[in-house]
Automatic annotation (TrEMBL):
It comes from Galendromus occidentalis (western predatory mite). GO terms for cellular component: endoplasmic reticulum membrane. GO terms for molecular function: monoacylglycerol lipase activity; phosphatidylcholine lysophospholipase activity. GO terms for biological process: monoacylglycerol catabolic process; phosphatidylserine catabolic process. Residues 133-247 form the AB hydrolase-1 domain. Residues 8-25 have a biased composition (Polar residues). This is Monoacylglycerol lipase ABHD12. Residues 1-31 are annotated as: Disordered.
């Protein structure tokens, strides 16, 4: 009896020392459930992102003019942020002045005047004291007149090309006050308002309109409107231009995720083209610009925002409407230079190239006027 009891006790002790199989399987089950839930969350996020990217955004873009306007004009993008545009001295410019030009009642456009180095710095004296050309600069979308590459161009034009610069922000940009959102007509109207303000102080033969990127669309539309008014400035410069804004969408980096979709043309391209608030068509407007107006187009072959082919088509549009006239000059920059979309101003000989163009345009204008 004693022996049996000892064996029984020993057996009982051995069983008590074995690990519990039920607790081990429970931990495995928990891990499986965690992995399963994690996969479900990841899958849900992927599906949600797919639906937002390829269903919600296209529907929103197609049906909302407000969305299209914000995507095209990018007034909400301010890089660099927190600029004090009312104090242009902080941008390293020569003797700048800040003021506001009224476009329409309730719409005031923040404007800078930067005189040529040839002019004496007199902040209390009259504007445009000398005889140098005056560049009316029309910037592209996003940011303000205080954007880095824009300020560097002002410096080049005023210190090396020795011309005056007037730069302003359209409605909704920078510190320009407006309750209205941006649109094609709105931006062109703002440009016309500043042009008229400028013409009250400077003769037309000294004014050069210079547009960059989206601003080339504004500039071409402006010059077409001025031609209707029998008004012709000295010249037009189009830096990194396009033929039609709808064509830019086909190549723009922001559209890369949707280009392969079958609805891309209808949803994104045609909706912009058919919306008068976003439909910049410089190709058609080029035919309405005064054929005697000297035009210079500047474009880099490595432009990743507006392909070179679109500028080439615009150039052909100008030439086709001018017949034998040689008033259009197309200046191209090779890809190896790395100028891209907004660094043409870094080209070493640009200041001389544009100043010679300005002087030639002004001289030609004076000769034409004297023959009348």
């Amino acid at each position: 009896m004693e022996l049996r009891q000892r064996r029984s006790a020993g057996t009982s002790s051995t069983r008590a020392d074995l690990p519990s199989t039920s607790s081990g399987s429970s931990k495995k089950e928990k891990r499986k459930n965690l992995v399963k839930r994690g996969c479900q969350v990841v899958l849900f996020k992927i599906v949600a992102a797919f639906l937002i990217l390829y269903l919600a955004i296209p529907i929103w873009f197609y049906n909302s003019q407000w969305v299209r306007q914000h995507v095209v004009f990018l007034t909400f993008v301010n890089i660099p942020p927190f600029l004090n545009l009312s104090d242009p001295d902080g941008f390293g410019l020569h003797c700048p002045r800040n003021f506001y030009v009224e476009s329409d009642p309730g719409i005031k456009l923040g404007t800078w005047y930067i005189p040529s180095d040839n002019e004496k710095c007199d902040r209390n004296g009259p504007l445009f004291q000398g005889e140098d050309p005056v560049v009316l600069y029309l910037h592209g979308n996003s940011g303000s007149r205080g954007g880095n590459h824009r300020v560097e161009l002002y410096k080049l034009l005023t210190t090396k090309a020795k011309v005056n610069v007037v730069a302003f922000d359209y409605r909704g940009y920078g510190d320009s006050v407006s309750e209205e959102g941006p649109s094609v007509d709105g931006l062109v109207h703002d440009a016309l308002a500043v042009y008229k303000w400028l013409r009250e102080r400077v003769p037309a033969e000294r004014v050069v309109v210079w547009g960059h990127s989206l601003g080339t669309g504004v500039a071409t539309h402006l010059l077409a409107d001025l031609n209707k008014l029998k008004e012709r400035p000295a010249a037009l410069v189009l830096e990194s231009p396009f033929d039609e804004l709808a064509n830019v969408v086909k190549h723009h980096p922001l559209s890369r995720m949707h280009r392969f979709m079958p609805y891309f043309q209808d949803i994104f391209v045609d909706s912009l083209k058919n919306d008068p608030t976003t439909s910049f068509n410089s190709f058609e407007k080029s035919k309405l610009v005064d054929p005697k107006l000297p035009v210079m187009i500047l474009h880099a072959k490595d432009d990743g925002v507006i392909p070179f082919s679109l500028a080439d088509r615009l150039h052909k549009g100008f030439e086709s409407s001018r017949g034998s006239s040689r008033s259009t000059e197309f200046v191209t920059f090779e890809s190896e230079l790395g100028y891209g979309h907004k660094y043409i101003y870094t080209h070493p000989g640009l200041h001389k190239k544009v100043r010679d163009f300005f002087d030639g345009a002004i001289a030609s204008r004076s000769e034409t006027d004297s023959q009348k």
